[in-house]
Description:
The structure is a single chain. By secondary structure, the protein is an alpha/beta fold. It has one domain: Aldolase class I (TIM Barrel). The protein is built from five helices and six strands; from the N terminus they run E-E-E-H-E-H-E-H-E-H-H. A hairpin with a 4-residue loop joins strand 1 and strand 2 (10-13). Helix 1 (57-69) packs parallel to helix 2. It is globular and about 55 Å long. The N and C termini lie far apart (37 Å). Iron/sulfur cluster (SF4) is lined by residues 39, 41-43, 46, 48, 79-81, 108, 130.
Amino acid sequence: MHLFDRRTGLNVLFDEVDVPETQWARAPRQVSIALTNACDLACAFCYAPKNAAVPDAGRLCAWIDELDAEGCLGIGFGGGEPTLYRRLPQVSRHAAERTRLAVTMTTHAHRLTPQLTDALAGALNIVRVSVDGVGTTYEEQRSRPFTELVQRLDTS
Ligand code: SF4
């Protein structure tokens, strides 16, 4: 038996509980969704193909509803850079308000303006920021000032 709280990310597994096979969840626990392969950084180690194709927001929301109905526990938005997906606030809010899924995102954070942060408030349970080091270590990998990242996170 698996208990999960999307607000805190708490997972509790009870191995001792004997659940009949007919009640086993068939959905994946977590699904990663690349909202776009586009990105405005050019990290030396990046393997993402940088084409700008994006999913249709309506189809994406329908797919998210289906994942919820089948018992999936969470979705994680990524890319590319997910903040380049114009409908990110709407799709995230749909998932947060109309499903029981945990909604998370992994971002480089350089596009987190106060306006975008406001638009995403309450629509994401967890935001992960990709950081490979601090100071010059970060800057050698990402070709962006580390202080800019800190400022973005400070004002978001
Ligand atoms: S931020 Fe991510 S997607 Fe963008 S170039 Fe770097 S590793 Fe690739």
